[in-house]
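Re-running Bifunctional UDP-N-acetylglucosamine 2-epimerase/N-acetylmannosamine kinase to confirm reproducibility after the cluster update. Everything else is unchanged from the original entry.
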Amino acid sequence: EVYFKNLSKQKQKEVMEKNGNNHKLRVCVATCNRADYSKLAPIMFGIKAEPQFFELDVVVLGSHLIDDYGNTYRMIEQDDFDIHTRLHTIVRGEDEAAMVESVGLALVKLPDVLNRLKPDIMIVHGDRFDALALATSAALMNIRILHIEGGEVSGTIDDSIRHAITKLAHYHVCCTRSAEQHLIAMCEDHDRILLAGCPSYDKLLSAKNKDYMSIIRMWLGDDVKTRDYIVALQHPVTTDIKHSIKMFELTLDALISFNKRTLVLFPNVDAGDKEMVRVMRKKGIEHHPNFRAVKHVPFDQFIQLVAHAGCMIGNSSCGVREVGAFGTPVINLGTRQTGRETGENVLHVRDADTQDKILHALQLQFGKQYPCSKIYGDGNAVPRILKFLKSIDLKEPLQKKFCFPPVKDNISQDIDHILETQSALAVDLGGTNLRVAIVSMKGEIVKKYTQLNPKTYEDRLELILRMCVEAASEAVNVNCRILGVGISTGGRVNPREGIVLHSTKLIQEWSSVDLRTPVSDALHLPVWVDNDGNCAALAERKFGHGKGIENFVTLITGTGIGGGIVHQHELIHGSSFCAAELGHIVVSLDGPECLCGSQGCIEAYASGIALQREAKKLHDEDLLLVEGMSMKKEEVVSAAHLIQAAKLGNTKADSILRTAGTALGLGVVNILHTMNPSLVILSGVLASHYVNAVKDVINRQALSSVKTVDVVVSNLADPALLGAASLVLDYTTRRIY
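Result of re-run:
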């Protein structure tokens, strides 16, 4: 709450002047149950913290007011919110008719409340039948509706209710890109859709470091350890109540057999919920030594429980949405969440028709730890929602407009107040420097950070995490949404696991290093890792000369020689992730020794290290400097001095460069005869010095069928960082890598 109080302090005056009036937006937030309050509470705190912009009215109804479900309205009072109205709207019953009657009762009671409150806008969450009554009442009474979590897909009647509320709502806050696209496909106004992420993630992503053992002991007992208990939360499926009751019985039988301490939460208020409670009591769950059955757990404590559980099982949306933020294993039973986007931590058991099948799923999942997933949010949803609310113009016509096909491409990013640039966090681990950058979808480096690369593993990893956290925090200020982290590093890399297998000699203590896990855990973002040569090829494919080219090769000419091969639009890694080690193509059997231990490699002739070696030899023999050149006594001889000497007429330096260019050209000829690409891209600081020599060797040595290949110099300013960004941007937006 303190955070939200300070969030917009400096911008308040500007926004008020822009709006041109001092009218406070009167916002009614209606909450029906414990689940939707966990999503609405962060927004309510944000609204309450800005009284100069908003007036907040809270309406409580539904299962909040039922003792059987824990009287959860009390947690709203404990959060210091004034409840304006309490509406008892649940009709007791065990079938579908009770839900219909509850909707009818809410429709009878809500008009009087809304007439008294006269809100400018009502915030409605999700897909519960209570929410449908709220949206219907507000729409018929000409009250603007902001719907949270529209556009998502799941199973049961919830889909129909969610989409019905979408058609009644005037504004939409969605959590994922897919949900946004669904709203667009449903012909909702592009400019009234905000892709913000799930509000509960604002709390989730900062929750795991808090004290949790006391919470675990309070709910599960003093002898329970982290990752050694289960959280079970299962609801009836209203479109097939009989089957969902049977599945719940099988789940409890499997949990009893699995013999781990288990916290079982009571189900939602739905047709079939009472029968599920009877099943629990029939099996003695409330008195079983391994089980704790509870009606309600406060959200702050619940997220600590699932964050440190060995597994969560059931069919709650919490399992496929919120729990992914912690990487806790989840077993999703049945069809209730069919269609939801999930992280790799979720194992689906669609036909949970036997105890053995559920028991096997428990054996597979229990105790694992998965990478943290941020599919549903990045922790900055509430600031975006508040910004969105402030932009609402109450003078605009109330009548909704629908955008029928054809649908525009850049949908909800068209208006200034929700404009954010999809971006990647790119990390380049060089032999000398460690660089981190925020890179936009268009390849613009928005902000870059550079530090000297530490010599030890511990210091290097600590610096990577510190720089990444700093850059991720800064991304919000520069209006960028970070989709993931891409890491470019020297050596042999297993990109599937995010592990550096073997490093080059330029980067010490950098073998068998798992980079994905610590970076993902620190940032709660997906992480991709690949070799720097492969990253350079990806950069060309997305931003450079390789864009749209089916088969091409990139050669990096720098301190070493590396590269990447793109064949049929896909990057080639090889069976042991050693493909495209182009610097170690042998072009002479008795050539100079290479750092790899072999002789006659391209790198031994044409790399910056090789040129520096030859320059030192000339300098030691006083054959390097010519007229027009000078060197300070303490200055280190480098490849640049050799190139300068050649330009000024030093025939020996020129001969060395021509030999280097010939060696590189012979390597390229071998590549042409092996891969037959249509394009060769030379990248790196030495590329412009070698391009003509390479073309000459191709004309002399290559088969006529490959001489037509184009050889060009890369026009990318920073291929390593752009390539690391491409790892993220290609996968998260187009799913092609």
